[in-house]
């Protein structure tokens, strides 16, 4: 009986085991069919990432600064990785669209040769721009405002040319910036104090500023402690590296010039514009340059002009120009200012300040438009490679002369999270106040998730930050701090004209087409963020070219955060590995079933020294 009972038990266990096996087979068959149907996409995505992502490098991802010449190594991906070589050392400060040799082939009239002239596709470099030997991480802010390592910008010409103007001094292995300038040799602080006696800088009314012909951007550097964010620009010319110095100091700046094309900024963007002996011929070309400043100046904004020809009767001897010449120049500037309906609110010493009227109705001379050439374009923000013209950009209409054209803006920081007037008043098609608030909330959530992976994001470690596809500036608003600033780039092919709203939030930014190089020097950004950028540019230009440009402008040991579709990021990750980036891909904050993923990267530290590398 015992033997028989044992036999029955064995048959029972065999039957149960068989049922379990059959049940598991059915379960996995159904699961596989479910995934192929599209409803189980998250699991197949996870499998694809496991197969095609270089998991062995993930533990080596580090956001720490090492100050080491040896970069961390990574094993090969499952799929082949294209390894990018270093460019020859002569390209260490290469600016593709402001290349000096190419510039000399263009006309000098109206500074055309100093504008953007990008290389054709066949002339683009497909190698990594090498940092100079001895390159080190910049000093942390605010020390970086006053000191820049010599090895990072080894150019002494400005210390000689501008010695008496207190621009920059060479001391041992660093450059020191005393805060002086051509018009403020005693320091930018005292100069700004003079401005603040006329312009409401202290109360947040003035938040965004434009500095034309900025030198080493000391004016913008010292405005920062007053919570004013200046967009500074200067050409790449005989004053070698002035914009590079500005960015090494941790001050917003781009390579640019008032020439023949419109500035890459939206209309009604800046609370204040400034020229301190910037050598721009304001009275030339029928006032075209003053009209362009008028386009980007917010209603009620201020224009500051210091240096020649202001108060020429007293100062003409020191300027080495004739009375007649200076008088004619100032008279012409005054005429154009009247035409633009700017009110002169101050002239003291070598400084004059005008204020733009808040609307057209409050401008008596504008009532007779036959005396004013108005711009015909219906979109004043359509500026990319558009020719500048001597015409006045119309302001939005108002119901009465007490209203601000386009809508009044709160003082900063109140304006940062308030609904921008362009959205509240319906100037951005299809975007409601509710949609803007939802976008705000979303980016706060994203940034919170970012900071759990990159613990340095909100600490001030990253001073110069770029958002390559900024939208409404939600990322920048979520990380806003005196410790950092964000260059909000709105691609020229973006679906919505959002850059104006970015400025209305008290942030700064620029239009750009990422099929071309950005107007900056190599190694000028500490962190680069991009959401949906590669999907946006799919079939527009090469993913490889965009990534190489990102590498050019990113500092050694700088960080990258990319959000995009998983299939896109898998391709990006493969290329990034070949560019000496350490990477890590993680799921969306809402879980693995979301197709959108986040790719974190850190650029390895390495320097030049290769004269024979092939470009």
Question: Care to give the gist of this entry?
Answer:
This protein is α/β, with parallel strands linked by helices and 615 residues long. The protein is 29% helix and 17% strand. The longest helix has 35 residues, at 2-36.
Summary keywords:
18 helices, alpha/beta, 29% helix, Rossmann fold, seven-stranded mixed beta sheet, Put_SAM_MeTrfase, glycoprotein, SAM-dependent_MTases_sf, transmembrane helix, disordered N terminus, Methyltransferase, 615 residues, 17% strand
State the helicity in percent bands: 25-40%
Biggest sheet, open or closed, and with what strands and sense?
Answer: 7 strands, mixed
Number of helices: 18
State the separation between the terminal residues, measured CA to CA: 88 Å
Broad shape: globular
CATH class of the domain at 134-356: Alpha Beta
Assigned CATH superfamily of the domain at 134-356: Vaccinia Virus protein VP39
Mean pLDDT: 87
CATH topology of the domain at 134-356: Rossmann fold
Estimated share of beta-strand residues:
15-25%
Gyration radius, to the nearest Å? Answer: 28 Å
Based on helices, strands and strand pairing, what is the structural class? alpha/beta
Question: How many β strands by DSSP?
Answer: 17
CATH architect. name of the domain at 134-356: 3-Layer(aba) Sandwich
Poorly predicted ranges: 1-13, 28-59, 66-78
With strands numbered from the N-terminus, the spatial order across the biggest sheet is: 6-5-4-7-8-10-9
